[in-house]
Amino acid sequence: MVEGRGLFITFEGIDGSGKTTQIRKLRQMLESESIPFEVIREPGGTMIGEKIRSILLDKEHSNMSPETELLLYEAARAQIVFERILPALSAGKTVICDRFYDSTVAYQGYARGLSLEAIDLVNKIATSGLEPDLTFLMDMSALDAASRVDGRKKDSDRLESEGLIFMEKVRVGYLALSKNNNRMIYLNAAAPINEVWQQIEKKVREVLNK
Questions:
Q1: Which DSSP category does 61 fall into?
Q2: If you ran DSSP here, which 8-state letter would residue 12 be given?
Q3: Is this model's pTM higher than 0.90 or not?
Q4: Fewer CB within 10 Å, N side or C side of the chain?
Q5: Helices (H), 17-62
Q6: How much of the chain is in helix, strand and coil states, percent to nearest 5?
């Protein structure tokens, strides 16, 4: 945690891994203790970002190149960092972000096959060098995650339509990122919800109390 600014927490994992549920629990904890915070999602979170999000997730854009996809995600990220994340952190707020640059490495790097070095460069440009203080990786098999998504949605977006092989590549990318990474906390997302939450709560309190 950088001295003089708020705590920056990100949640990562494939769709259906339970990020939304655990973010809601963290929000409730912070609210109950009157800790100022903001919850943000990627891509989106700003007027510009939401317009980019609609382009990225629209299944009519199935012919989008991996490079276009990468740059659109980074454009949305640059805007949300500038417009919302940095101001909130400077104001001393805890910022909870549903996805950040680790998603780009996993999806566009490991799954799409784009250069990890190039992605690292554009990530640094888009974030102005900002890094999360703490990242929770919600890990679950692509098959189990897909069954959760199918049970709650009538229609899938462009990325969700990529299928199990693609999502398993994303998962492999996340697991590779989590190795020897003190910032990233691995969580078995297939475990009971409250069991996962207890691990998150313990770690967040530990960091907040430093």
A1: G
A2: E
A3: yes
A4: C
A5: 19-32, 47-57
A6: 60, 10, 30
155's tokens: 């229609």
Assess contact for 5 and 90: CB atoms under 8 A.
yes
Token pair listed for 36? 């100022």
Which residue ranges make up each domain of the chain?
8-208
Q: 20: which 2 tokens?
A: 């939304």
Q: Is 79 exposed, middle or buried (0-12, 13-18, 19+ CB in 10 A)?
A: buried
Domain 8-208 CATH superfamily = P-loop containing nucleotide triphosphate hydrolases (3.40.50.300)
Per-residue pLDDT of the chain (210 residues; tens, 9 = 90+): 666 689 999 999 999 999 999 999 999 999 999 999 999 999 999 999 999 999 998 888 889 999 999 999 999 999 999 999 999 999 999 999 999 999 999 999 999 999 999 999 999 999 999 999 999 999 999 999 888 877 565 566 666 677 889 999 999 999 999 998 999 999 999 999 999 999 999 999 999 987
